[in-house]
UniProtKB/TrEMBL annotation:
<keyword id="KW-0106">Calcium</keyword>
<feature type="domain" description="EF-hand">
    <location>
        <begin position="117"/>
        <end position="147"/>
    </location>
</feature>
<protein>
    <recommendedName>
        <fullName>EF-hand domain-containing protein</fullName>
    </recommendedName>
</protein>
<dbReference type="Pfam" id="PF13499">
    <property type="entry name" value="EF-hand_7"/>
</dbReference>
<feature type="domain" description="EF-hand">
    <location>
        <begin position="42"/>
        <end position="77"/>
    </location>
</feature>
<dbReference type="Pfam" id="PF00036">
    <property type="entry name" value="EF-hand_1"/>
</dbReference>
<dbReference type="InterPro" id="IPR002048">
    <property type="entry name" value="EF_hand_dom"/>
</dbReference>
<dbReference type="InterPro" id="IPR050230">
    <property type="entry name" value="CALM/Myosin/TropC-like"/>
</dbReference>
<dbReference type="GO" id="GO:0005509">
    <property type="term" value="F:calcium ion binding"/>
</dbReference>
<feature type="domain" description="EF-hand">
    <location>
        <begin position="6"/>
        <end position="41"/>
    </location>
</feature>
<dbReference type="InterPro" id="IPR018247">
    <property type="entry name" value="EF_Hand_1_Ca_BS"/>
</dbReference>
<dbReference type="InterPro" id="IPR011992">
    <property type="entry name" value="EF-hand-dom_pair"/>
</dbReference>
<keyword id="KW-0677">Repeat</keyword>
<dbReference type="GO" id="GO:0016460">
    <property type="term" value="C:myosin II complex"/>
</dbReference>
Length: 147
């Protein structure tokens, strides 16, 4: 997920702050401190994975361009997690369980869509998803509907 200019400027500031020796690179310890300062709390394994994902020159250190890739990857991962959180919240609101178990009634789903005046062809979505015509939708089916 691309960063805004403001985010890039913040990254530059954080990167320079933690590039203690002015070498233009930061190592694993410096990366962890940098991410902590930006409000993130990655594990040691996540730090290693971040470096290995973007360390194009296999130096074991991250240059600024590689650092930007790390932050973009983190931002994308966070966005995906938030997307699923919204789907889980909707599933729970319709009668499913927080651990993604249980089922929701297709009748209740139709009612909610109608009540909110949404212009979704819910009948079509249900017929494509609830292939066994049980009148119930589990989490994976609900998630597929919401794509």
């Amino acid at each position: 997920m691309p960063l805004s200019q403001e985010e890039i400027d913040g990254c530059r500031e954080a990167f320079n702050k933690f590039d203690k020796d002015g070498s233009g690179t930061i190592d694993a310890l410096e990366l962890k401190a940098t991410l902590n300062a930006m409000g993130q709390n990655p594990t040691e394994e996540e730090i290693f994975q971040m470096i290995s994902q973007v360390d194009d020159d296999n130096s074991g250190e991250i240059e600024f361009a590689e650092f930007i890739k790390v932050i973009e990857n983190q931002k994308t991962t966070a966005a995906k997690a938030n997307d699923e959180t919204d789907t889980i919240d909707a599933f729970i609101a319709l009668g499913g369980q927080p651990n993604k178990t249980g089922e929701i009634s297709t009748d209740k789903l139709k009612e909610v869509i109608k009540d909110f005046g949404l212009t979704i062809d819910i009948e079509k979505l249900i017929s494509e998803t609830d292939t066994d015509r049980s009148g119930k939708v589990d989490y994976s089916e609900f998630k597929n509907m919401m794509k």
